[in-house]
Design a protein that fits this description.
Layout (H helix, E strand, L loop, with lengths): L9 E5 L3 H11 L3 E6 L3 E6 L2 E6 L1 H4 L16 E5 L5 H10 L5 E5 L2 E7 L5 E5 L11 E10 L5 E9 L2 E9 L4 H14 L6 E6 L2 H8 L2 H7 L13 H11 L3 E6 L7 H15 L5
Parallel strand pairs: 1-4, 5-8, 9-12, 12-13
Antiparallel strand pairs: 2-3, 3-4, 6-7, 7-8, 9-10, 10-11
């Protein structure tokens, strides 16, 4: 047809109490109410889309422009949130007295709950459908910098039987920045959502995700526990953005311990570093 694929733009739920619905969707779920016209409807912004809440009795007849809905009873709508934020949303709902039920999917997790009208809502990882594809990638990264601040980075990507090495050099940098750069560059190579396992010999990089350092830094306004500004904030923010596109698992491997892929990226990062002139 030569046209772009359609995208979901709106979803609807139904209630006979728009006031209770507005209170729930604004105060509990934190959605912005753009239009509130009782007793007929209330419209809420959800990212780039809209959640439309209608009174079925008021919309049964329709009007000159919009056909009648004809819907009765509870429906199901799923909202998405980053995997690492699901527990926070679940806690928020439970504190508001809302019962939730967790579900595990091949590509992630979600949980179900009901609004005051009985509509079945779900908050899910945006990756729960990603496992329907076969994009499973292993990534091995390393970074290197010397006392002259010459830096190099390298990443080996493996998809099935295919391997690809990417690398680069940068002056006036640090080892930690090169470790972060290698991970960012590797994820940028992936053109669609994938299940990614990243192997690194940097505890700094791995623990920022696995031990919750990044969550704490962000909550503290990008400051450490000692109130100091977090170093390499620009790269951390870029890495956070890229990891949200994929299912990412972080694994640590000891450096210089005979691990084939780690040795390969270590040598390539050092080779790149040495291409820079010594000042």
């Amino acid at each position: 047809m030569g046209m772009k694929k359609l995208k979901l733009f709106e979803a609807s739920v139904y209630t006979d109490d728009l006031v209770a619905a507005r209170r729930f969707y604004e105060e509990v779920l934190g959605l912005d109410c753009l239009i509130f016209e009782p007793p007929r409807h209330a419209f809420f912004r959800t990212g780039r889309g809209m959640l439309l809440v209608f009174n079925p009795a008021a919309t049964a007849q329709g009007d000159e422009e919009v056909p009648p809905h004809g819907a009765q009873g509870p429906v199901h709508v799923a909202l998405s949130a980053p995997e690492e934020e699901l527990a926070g949303w679940a806690s928020r709902l439970q504190q508001a007295g809302v019962e939730i039920r967790w579900a595990d999917w091949p590509g992630g997790r979600s949980f179900f709950f009901r609004d005051p009208a009985g509509n079945l809502l779900e908050i899910a990882s945006p990756h729960i459908w990603d496992a329907a594809n076969d994009c499973v990638v292993e990534v091995f990264t390393d970074g290197s910098a010397d006392d002259k601040k010459r830096g190099g980075w390298a990443a080996l990507l493996r998809y099935g039987d295919h391997e690809k090495m990417i690398s680069g050099a940068q002056p006036q940098t640090t080892n930690n920045r090169m470790e972060l750069t290698a991970a960012v560059k590797a994820l940028l190579e992936l053109k669609r959502p994938c299940q990614v396992t990243i192997y690194t010999d940097s505890q700094y990089l791995k623990k920022a995700f696995s031990d919750g350092w990044l969550d704490k830094w962000q909550k503290n306004g990008w400051r450490t526990a000692s109130k100091q500004p977090v170093k390499n904030k620009d790269l951390w923010m870029q890495l956070l953005k890229e990891t949200q596109r994929h299912q990412v698992e972080w694994r640590w491997t000891r450096g210089h311990a005979g691990h084939r892929e780690n040795e390969l990226v270590d040598k390539e990062a050092q080779r790149q570093r040495r291409t820079l002139p010594a000042e």
